[in-house]
Specification:
binds adenosine-5'-diphosphate, seven-stranded parallel β-sheet, single chain, binds zinc ion, about 30% helix
Length: about 725
Amino acid sequence: MIAKVITDIALDREFEYIVPPELEKTLRCGSAVSVPFGRSFREGYILSFHDTAEFAREKLKMIAGVSRRRASIPEKLIELGRWMADYYCCTLEQSIRTLLPAAVRNGKVRPLVRRMYFIPDRAVAEKFVADHREDKRASARCELLRALLAGGDASIDELKKLPGFSESALKTLQKHKLLCFREEICRRDIFGDAEVIPDTPREATPDQQKALAQVAKMLDQQGGVLLLHGVTNSGKTEVYLQAISSTIARGRSAIVLVPEISLTPQTVRRFRARFGDRLSVLHSRLSEGERFDEWNKINSGEVQIVVGARSALFAPFANLGLIVVDEEHESTYKQSEAPRYHARDVAVMRGKMENACVILGSATPSAESMHNAATGKFSLAEMKTQVGLRPAPRFIVVDRRLSAAEKENGVFSSELTEAVRQRIADGEQVILFLNRRGYAHTLRCPQCGYEACCESCDVNYVYSKRRETLSCHLCGAVISAPETCPQCGSPEIRYLGSGTEKIESIARALFPDARIARMDSDVMRSADDYEDVLDRFRRGEINLLIGTQMIAKGLHFPNVTLVGILNADQGLSMPDFRASERTFQLLMQVAGRAGRGEHPGEVVLQTFKPENDAIRCAVDGDFAGFVKFDLEFREMMNFPPFSRMIAVFFRGGDDEKTSRAAADFAQALTPYLHDGITLAGPIRAPIERIRGQYRYLLTLRGKKLANLRSALRVLALHRNWDGAEVAVDVDPQTLM
Ligand code: ADP
Ligand code: ZN
Ligand code: ZN
């Protein structure tokens, strides 16, 4: 028998090996094997078996053996990996690599081993205790032995807590063979001692019952996708929890994907409270060892549920029954390096391959998913009211065109200033949202027109007043802020445009009585910082929280009665067909932070474009209206979901060569441009240069791109473009 094996050399190629007869029964697709490669050996995975070889059989080498250092990949995941490589035009190696966490793949992490002490012969031990009852010198030993006889096997930590413990007592007992130890694999504890109070399912509301009935039907039918469209607080998470219970009651497992930013201890606690030890959590803050252990817990069936960010999608459950994708519209589900997969779409594919059902949940589902629901590809369940019938927050729109003259402090309209003062005075809490960090975003000289711009990227520097630096948010370059114009020496240099840092300093002056904190990636260095601020906000030690989209998602604070949106228009001018959708989603999400408790919430929204459709619909809470408008626009322009789109990015240090590579690439695609497939570009990418690399972009659109995809794979992965790097992005989420 012949096996095709992929090794971890970044090639889009499998190599053939002869399967040793004695291993034919042991090996399967996904098995980790060691193979001779050149003059040494490499580790790899079997992707398929064949009766005949493509190459001359006599030249083939034989698989050396089963890999001792690596875990195998479940067979069904290999199939998913193949599909990803094909669909997302990446190499097989990149795709297969994604299926395993590095900690499992690299073979460097060892399982944690602990010693368990036990009494090999109780009778002997009991006799020893009885014999030495009166012997004073042995009393500590006896006491320890007696405690062990009563309590059973113990780890060293448990031993240390027993009466009579001392190192010498332990040694002596071991020497006399009264006590032995065995080594056991144990799991690193990711939850620490944090206690959770167990909770039980709530009685489902009529809307939840309907959704759960649909889930039960899918579980019986062994497959299907349910789009769960429910406003914030309508009880979607409760639906997930009960759907998971039904899944594990049927002996199957469940994966829950949440955006990394929503994977807070608060979220995890909710799942732990319901499922306790049956739950594993995968997030980016785990150590290599913890990740290794969590993966092994899943792989060995010790847990049935995993909650995690994007990559948890590849959890190696043998009998997967359900995948939940919460906040399915989130663009962070798209991976930005190869394989550039979208976890929602791959979840749907994995569900299909493994007869598992998929729930896509969101308060603002993506246009793609709404379209799939409209065409019957997905079923739809809607939950339109908040649990407890809390009213939606009330919007106050401040038209900034009328108050632009207010200048300097102009980021705070008088309406907003007044509202904040009132809430603080009433002992309530306020969130102010601006999706931009730093102090100012343009440093300009009015004398000579100079604008500070990163030397290696095509973007303006961001000014931080506290650190007195200018920094580039693309490449991370930092220089000290100039006091005079670097070009003409004028001291008149001006800082324009506001970020959260500036909002904070203005707020401190405007609201001296407020207890203010800021939350953005400049000040939040670690997950602990984040938790710390949230805890203080929860306890009321902070009553005014200023932040970027970090505060937009999932935070539940009943005492927040006012949300201020400083600049609602911010994302609208992005050169992207999803700009309106993103703006709408973000505004809905931010607004959802207000009025989650007893007091009704209010949102003060500042805008220069009150008549813009995304803003108007967000203010009216009119999701259906927005989707109608957005889908009409996309259909008219032939954007996804009415076409499929593939973007190809080119980058290189030499502008001319990169531009030529892009043009040649486009030329090579000409034979495929039929059946309504269109090509646009190449053009300079909206961000023309990053880290000194020039960037070009071409986009392809059409109804059926399967043939084009295979051509793109060959062009992008198997051909050289004279120093230019080519990146194919299928279903791109951003065209910057
Ligand atoms: P969402 O995920 O849509 O924001 P949640 O599931 O978090 O909504 O529910 C919002 C709040 O309502 C939570 O505090 C939750 O415990 C509570 N809740 C959800 N479903 C019910 C129910 N059927 N009965 C009572 N309380 C519920
Ligand atoms: Zn100047
Ligand atoms: Zn830069």
